[in-house]
Every structure is written in structure tokens, then in C-alpha cells.
Amino acid sequence: MSKSVGGTKILLEERDIPTRWYNIQADMPNPLQPPLNPATKQPAGPQDLSPIFPMELIKQEVSTDRWVEIPDEVRELYRLWRPAPLYRARRLEQALDTPARIYYKYEGTSPAGSHKLNTALPQAYYNKQAGIKRLATETGAGQWGSALSIACSFFALECQVYMVKVSYNQKPYRRLFMETYGASVVASPSNLTVAGRHILAEHPDSPGSLGIAISEAVEDAATRDDTNYSLGSVLNHVLLHQTVIGLEAKTQLEKVDDYPDVVIGCCGGGSNFGGLSFPFLHDVFTQGRKVRVIAAEPTACPTLTRGKFAYDFGDTAKLTPMMMMYTLGHDFMPAGIHAGGLRYHGDSPLVSQLYHDGFIEARAYNQKDVFAAAVLFARHEGILPAPESAHAIKGAFEEALAAKEAGEARTILFGLSGHGHFDLSAYEAYLTGMMEDVPYADEDLARSMANLPEIK
Amino acid sequence: MSKSVGGTKILLEERDIPTRWYNIQADMPNPLQPPLNPATKQPAGPQDLSPIFPMELIKQEVSTDRWVEIPDEVRELYRLWRPAPLYRARRLEQALDTPARIYYKYEGTSPAGSHKLNTALPQAYYNKQAGIKRLATETGAGQWGSALSIACSFFALECQVYMVKVSYNQKPYRRLFMETYGASVVASPSNLTVAGRHILAEHPDSPGSLGIAISEAVEDAATRDDTNYSLGSVLNHVLLHQTVIGLEAKTQLEKVDDYPDVVIGCCGGGSNFGGLSFPFLHDVFTQGRKVRVIAAEPTACPTLTRGKFAYDFGDTAKLTPMMMMYTLGHDFMPAGIHAGGLRYHGDSPLVSQLYHDGFIEARAYNQKDVFAAAVLFARHEGILPAPESAHAIKGAFEEALAAKEAGEARTILFGLSGHGHFDLSAYEAYLTGMMEDVPYADEDLARSMANLPEIK
Q1: B14-61 pLDDT, tens per residue?
Q2: What CATH number does residue B311 fall under?
Q3: In chain B, which residue's Cα lies nearest the Cα of A150?
Q4: Which structural domain range is residue A83 located in?
Q5: Best residue in B70, B75, B79 for a mutation probing chain A (most A CBs within 10 Å)
């Protein structure tokens, strides 16, 4: 079939679903700085986290064991859609006229439509095991809320979602999706929490933000005995669970006797990016392999490319522990770009440390260029990408053209973290020429960066 | 893992993608009645079809060869998502407390979101081979238009979609989906055709219907040399292409040493239903196996359960050949139920003949019962079903409860033809108690049935 130009899917058997998650804390050259209690600014211990997280997840958060066993119950649910397909993008290679081999790992076959279910399931599982009855969380674009709603329906947990108000109003289908699985969804800022009421009193028309919604969900969990908090990105245990992505991709590439020269993921909080790339960084750390790893982010929220490596809060109300991370400041308010999942002011401490230490590169893209890449991808590969994932596509295009320029048959792997079925209004804006590029204003960035907390 | 309650996915290798489609015309006890030229009412020959179809598809339409080779180029594109998964619905079995084993074949992992791409690809391929530059088609709910748009983008064909006006207005995301792949989409009735202008002159506010949209697309294709017509259901070659569904499902059940006592599919034009069930009817005809085959349809458009087996037109403007089929009359206007893909007045001649001859059973369901089944399914299996597919879920529930009543561990296979990501307004109507059951009015049915053409 050498004349064929169709895509090639590299499949695995169910027995190839990983049995263990990979914990990069075992291998990274410089360990993480500890999170700090937001009041005392002293290192936070398990007792700081236990009001809102079950002990098993707290243990995973601080573990330096290289491998963490995946519970049978979680692995069984992974089988609903895992192993996820890895594609060789042959049609795209032809369109780009590149000697590069382009592969993408597609997480959109999950019933939630993205990689988020990889961590929603274990989080729901460990909370259920700990006797918790209800989970509170935030969601921006809705990918994470959708995943946690499904996970909670599987484990018979109540699910309370604080959805950033602007998304709540713009994306009714995302809200309806969560409600179909039984979740309660409220627009944030809401009247359900002190944090929400405080914001509404000052700014009745606040469009909300991820930072505000996190404050609400954390407060909800901290003030109810039956409730814990669940976060869809940023934290170590979240990235740990997502390593099933990269572990499978490695096995799939082995099947076709290939290995990436460069690995590219979109990066907001960092869970998709870390999940894909960490198993390859493992080879860098333990076998001295050379792999370039690239994080793709929006110019409108350029956390890695323009942020500062510093301690900062995870939320607006300063309820979360302070974390050492690349940040634009906890009150940075990014423009309303269509990749809502990449609009977080901070980045995972793990990704941040590795970027700081030079193991990761970062690139920022304008959304019009990102959508141009998304449409070209859809027309050649068939799949409609999520706007977040399209940042990785744009990065792959750049690398494919660089390979062409160099005349080298490089191997490129990128993560297609989800489908764009709920993002068609964004495609409409692009196709009708109504899409604007909305980079941050330099003065806004300077202001929020000046608000970083002081740590002695 | 016997304690496990997770779903079990039965996977195949890419080499298990069928190499041949199954043609039930080789085995059915009573052959089809020929289609009739709408003007002369004499049997239609290839010359009646060649203005709008390529010769390869016309040959398939009338072939009685049992197996038809799938072109390499088509099979290569099938590999984008095929083999499609077969699931054992263990969590659902537990929820229904049934001794039955319930399996479902899921076609929603196709980039178009439904089974429709199975035939869109070969139709685009054969038209491209025949030198055609442009395809015209109709779409109701949008599943078919989405699939043909993707197929046309792969084969660099222009794509003109006449979309039923009520759907065009209610489902902007479906329209945007097609446009993202480069299709031109117009609300039908439109000013682009004589048929459309005629309707608009009489009924400027016409909401459109599938029958009208077919008239427009057929006229478009018949009046332009570079353009052919493409239909997403009903015709023999369409059902032929869809047999990949049932062929794969048989192979998957063999892997777990099982075989269905009953096969259930939703049935509008019949392509999903025939694609799933015909390979099992093959065993009935050639090996004397006993398999019950059930077509699930809406009470609002009860073609099999209340229609008449008679010659009728496929469209409102009477441009298509007349076909011998179960029909409610070519001007029957079904209520605006949410399963838009099941709102066609007729049924595939193949399904109709086999139903007439007693090899198929049919059931009609109210949409509220259908959505109750869909929500229960989503909460236990994770996947959000399309409203059309949910009719098959409802049928499977009935059979599972019948098995419980009988105390028999029957094997049930149903087709989950697509996901419901573009149907969340329907779920909203159901969850908020705003959904109405809208059966046909007896007098409307009597009127349209009285309009059937007379054949001597």
C-alpha cells in the first residue's frame, strides 16, 4: 500500500494500557520547591491539604517513587476508550511537503472528548475510597467539568461545578453536557460562596475567571465535611495520571520502530503537555536520549514565554497554597480567546521547574495562526481539533517546515488533546474573518507581575 | 478482574477491517422490485440513473454478487477510525439487573461522528474516479452532510449541501462543521433550484423537509455536467457500504465466542440498520441461524410500523425514481422531533422487502422514552448518544428486561450509530421537562397515504 496517502492509525491491545503511571519527580535533576501555606508562608504539609484532598492523592503529590500502580478499577474504566490511537499524519505530511514523519496522539475518543478523563477517573476513585460523597471543581472551557461529571456519575458521587461565567453564557452546550451526567453547574462568581459573593458585591457584572472559580470550589470543599476539591491540571498528581498518554505513545512508536526527535504539546496548566512529554523526558534523564520538548501556548496568555518563575497563588482569593511556578500574576486577566483551556495565569510546578532547568522549550502563537493550522489539519486528517490542541498542531507545522528546510526526515510527535465539537463558534469567527488576535497589554502584564507575593 | 464493572471494549487489528462489502441481494429469498422511471412508470435502467450517479455505484445498486471488493483507497481511509469498537455494556447490564449480555457497536469515533462516513468515502471515491468535480446532497439533522463534507475534502471535490431549513436555523454548529471542511451549505428550500423556488413561491415560510432538499440536490446534479448526486441512506449501494459495521461486529463477537440472539438498530432510511443487521441475516439465509432483527423507529414517523408497502417517490418534487418500499407517502410531514435522521417518509427498499417477508421486526418509540434510555445509558457507559441511536438503546432495554423476565442469558447486540455532541438542546428539552411526545395525526397520515402514486 505504498501509494496510499491515508492516515495510519497505530493501535495497541487492551493489555498495553499502562499498569503504572510515571512520576517524573523520581528523575528530574532539581527537585520541586515545596508549596507554601498561604497564611504562614511556611512549607505546606499534608495537614494543609487534607481538608480538600484524600490522603492517597496527597501521597502522590509528594511521592518520589518512579512508578505508581494504577488501581484495577481505574484501569478497567480506562478501557472504555484506551489505548487511545496514535496516528501517522501521512496526508498532512504530503500537504506540507515535508520529509518529516508526523505522528499525533489523539485523546478525543474519550467520552469526555479530551484527555481530562485520564485524571478525573482516579480522582473520583480515590475520593470515593476515602468516603467522600461530593466533589467541587471549577471549569473554564468546560473540558475538565465534563470529564469530572462523567467520572462522578461512574462512582455515584455528587458533582458541583463552578463554571467561569463568560463560558457558562457562551457555551450552553458544555453546561448541558455536564448536567446530562447529573452534575450541578453554576456560573462563577456565584452566590454560593463567600468568595463569589465578595466579587459580585464589588463587580456585579464580573465575567469570572479560572482564578475566581477555583476560589469558589476550594471554599466549597473546605467548608463541607462530605466534599473534596478536584483540580484538572497544574498539580503533580494530575500530571502523574496523564502520563498514560506518553507511555502509550512510546509503545506505539516502538511498534513502528520510530522515536521522536521532538515532542510538542499545548500547555495551559500543563497536564496534557506533561502527560505526553514526561515519559520521553524519562529517557532523557535515565538514558541520555536527545529529545526536544516544546510547550505551545497562546500569545494572549504567555505564561512560559513571558512569565516569571516565582511563588504565586493558584487562585484569586489566595486560598490555595503558594506554588513555585511560571506565572503572569494571580490576578492577570487574559483576553477572551477561544482556547479557554489555555487561559490560566500559572503553570504546573513540574513543567515550570523543567522549563527553568532548560529541558523544555516554549513557543507562543496568535490564535488566527492557530486556527489556520486547525482548519488545514481538519481538511487533511478529518478530525476537528479543539482550539487548545490546535496550538500543538501549529507547533508541529513549524517543526515540519524546519525539517524541510534542513532536508532532514525528523520524527515529530504532537498531542491532539481533544476534539472541537463544542468550539464551532470559534471556527465560525475564524472562517468569517471575524477572529481577532488579542495579545495581552504590556501594562496589564506589568501590573499583575508586580502583584506577586513576596517571599523572604 | 471478575469483580470489575467497567465496560469492555472488544478491539480488532487493522487487518480485520473488511476487504469486501456484503451484498444481501445475493441471498434474500425474494428479489427487489425494480425502481420505476417517474415519468414512464417503466422499470428504470442505468440510463435513468447515469445523469446523477457514477457507473460503479449504479452497478453496485443492481448487483447480485454476494461480495463487493472495497477499493484500497477507501479501505485506507477507513483506517482513520476503523475497526470501530464493540463494547460489552457491563455497567448497563448491572443497572438493568438483567441476565442478558448486551453489546453495542459504536460508530461515533468516526471523525464525522456517525456511521455515515462509511458510505461517504466510497461515494466520493467512485465519483472522483469518474471525473466528477462536485457533489450535491441534502442533509436533515446534519450527520450525512458532515460525512460527505469530510469525504469531499479528502478527494478534493466541491460539496454543495442543501440543509433542511429548520435544521439550518436550529443547528448552526452542524452547518459550521460542514463549512470548516470546505462545503457550501444553503438552507432548503433555496433559490438555487427550480424546485426550491417553486416551494418558496407557494410557501415563503416553508421549514423545509428531507423530501424537498432531495429534490433540490437531484435537480442541481441533473442540470450540471460536473456534478453528481450523493445520497446518505435508502439506496442499495449505501446499505452495501454500511455492512462494514455488521461484518466487524461479527468478527468481534467471535473473539469472545458469542453470537447475538437479537440485533437492534435504529431505522430511518435504513443504512445504519441494514449495515449492522445484514451480515447476520446472511447467516440466517445461508446457515439457517436464528437471529431476531429489530428496527427501532419513532412513533412520530412510523414508516415500518404504520406505513404501506408500495411504490412511492423518494422526494417531494417527484424527481427520483419510484421505489417499492414502506412509505407514509412522499408528502408526509413528520413532526419536528429531535431525531432528525429518522424523519424520512420512506424506508430502504432492501429493508422494506425483508420486513415484508418477515425477517425483520419493527418497534416504534416515543421520544421521551427514548431520551430516558439515552440518559441512563450515558450515565453508565459514558458515551452521549445521538437521538437517533437512542432508539436502538430503548429497544435494547426492552429486550434486556424481556430476557430478565424469561430468566434467560440472551445475547443482545445493538448499534450505537453516533454521538450526540450536536444534540444537546434536545437533552436540555428532556432534562428540563420541556420535551413533548409528538406522534403523527391520524388524519395527516391518512391524507399522505392517499397520495401514493398509482401503479398499474
Answers
A1: 889 999 999 999 999 999 999 999 889 999 988 899 999 999 999 999
A2: 3.40.50.1100
A3: B382
A4: 2-18+71-113+237-449
A5: B79
Match 413533548 to its residue by C-alpha cell.
B436
Q: Is residue A53 part of a domain?
A: no
Q: What's the predicted TM-score (pTM) here?
A: 0.95
**What are residue A402's DSSP bridge partners?**
none
CA-based nearest residue to B214, from B230, B202, B227? B230
- The answer to whether the Cβ–Cβ distance between A13 and B9 falls below 8 Å is no
CA-to-CA distance for A141 and A385, rounded, in angstroms?
A: 14
Is position B397 within any domain?
A: yes
Q: Is residue A318 part of a domain?
A: yes
Nearest CB neighbour to B431, from listed A1, A9, A180 = A180
Percent of chain A, pLDDT > 70? 98
CA A136 to chain centre: 18
B430 Rama class: left (phi>0) / alpha (psi -120 to 50) / beta: alpha
Q: Three-class SS string for B367-398?
A: HHHHHHHHHHHHHHHCCCECHHHHHHHHHHHH
Measured in angstroms, the CA of B377 and the nearest CA of chain A are apart by 10
Q: B148 contacts in A (CB within 8 Å)?
A: none
Q: Does B94 touch chain A (CB under 8 A)?
A: no
Highest mean pLDDT: which range of A205-219, B180-194, B426-440 = B180-194
B86 domain-assigned: yes
Domain count, chain B: 1
Q: Measured in Å, how far apart are chain A's first and last C-alpha atoms? A: 64
DSSP annotation of A85 reads P
Complex ipTM over 0.95: no
Q: CA–CA separation, B369 vs B2, rounded Å?
A: 32
